[in-house]
Amino acid sequence: MTFLQAVLMAIFQGTTELFPVSSLGHAVILPTLLGWNFDQQSSGFLPFLVVLHVGTAAALLLYFWREWVRLFMAVLGRGRTKERNLIVLLLVGTLPALFFGFVFEKWFRHLFGSASAAAWFLVVNGAVLFAGERLRRRAAVASDRRGLAQAGWRDALLVGLFQASALFPGISRSGTTIVGGLLVGLRHEDAARFSFLLATPIIIGAAVLEIPKLRHAPTETGSAVLSGNVLWIAGLAAGLTAYASTAFLMRYFRTHEESAALDPFAYYCWLAGASALAILHWPSR
Predict the structure, then answer these.
(1) Among 233, 154, 160, which Cα is nearest to 202's?
(2) Residue 260 gets which letter from DSSP?
(3) Is residue 2 a contact partner of residue 224, using CB atoms and an 8 Å limit?
(4) Which in 96, 102, 121, 134 has the greatest CB count within 10 A?
(5) Residue 27 near residue 184 (C-beta atoms within 8 A)
(6) CB 175: neighbour CB atoms within 10 A?
(7) Is 93 helix (H, G, I), strand (E, B) or coil?
(8) 213 near 43, Cβ under 8 Å?
(9) Residues 6+ apart with CB under 8 A from 161
């Protein structure tokens, strides 16, 4: 992987990580479509993606820094009941992804090198987003929708199970968790807020497991990425674009509560996934 490829993937990942369109799916599909010649099934590719996600985690910590300070104070016993409840929600919501990721790590890792599988899952992701909006409308009218302060641990567990489905490349973590939040009765903005807060422990946990493997990654994975400061420049690029994406999406969901806010992303996933499948399976390839 060259310097330019690393930075372009970082910008693309940072842009798509918080949008409900699966940054991991795009990271698997994009190199194949562009003919970039590096091994996506190598032991070094997943840690590289995790470094990009660390940039995203830093952006989320920065954007929600006041919230994280309040949560930290709650851990020290100085927070309010609301913050202590949110800590419980985050812990419960994180557990399913940790469990399934640990048990099925090797199986999921195999999918990371399959652009076709990622494209199919991207189409599925569009269906999840589209169906989520329709189920939300049937589940509760606007006056019945709740804020995050009224959510319980069962709600967080359901959102966490939705998050675990994002272990499939092409299924969006933010998209499924927002849908899960909508189905338990949260407003769009609160579902998005919980989704973005929930991303941080998952990303940090993945980083703790994967970044040390960079030391042992084979050089053919991309010596340009594993040398010098290129890897961390890519992480910075991902973080900057992720911060901008977070700011945009929080405002978007705040102002689109009464509309099917996820529909545009569903249409994009269908178009992108179907187009990728058509290109990947075109007879000339």
Answers:
(1) 160
(2) -
(3) yes
(4) 121
(5) no
(6) 27
(7) helix
(8) yes
(9) 96, 180
Contact 201, 94 (CB under 8 A): yes
C-beta neighbour count of 245 within 10 angstroms: 22
Beta bridge partners of 262: none
Pairwise CA distance, residues 82 & 198, whole Å: 16
- Helix boundaries (H) for the chain: 3-16, 23-34, 45-63, 65-75, 81-103, 105-111, 115-139, 153-164, 173-183, 188-210, 223-226, 230-255, 263-280
| Separation between Cα atoms, residue 106 and residue 102, nearest integer Å | 9
pLDDT in tens, 33-80: 887 776 665 655 666 777 888 888 899 999 999 999 988 888 887 767
Nearest residue to 265 (alpha-carbon basis) of 174, 183, 196: 174
pTM summary value: 0.85
Q: What is d(CA 274, CA 276) in angstroms, rounded to the nearest whole number?
A: 5
Tell me which of 96-105, 119-128, 190-199, 269-278 is least confident.
96-105
d(CA 176, CA 153): 18
> Tokens for 206?
């993945």
For the segment 265-278, what is each residue's pLDDT rounded down to a tens digit?
A: 999 999 999 999 99
Phi-psi region of 259 (alpha: psi -120 to 50; beta: other; left: phi over 0): beta
DSSP secondary structure, 211-243, as one string:
GGGGGG--GGGTHHHHSTTHHHHHHHHHHHHHH
Q: Could you give the CA distance from residue 166 to residue 255 in angstroms, rounded to a whole number?
A: 26
Please provide residue 186's backbone torsions phi and psi, each rounded to the nearest 5 degrees: -80, 155
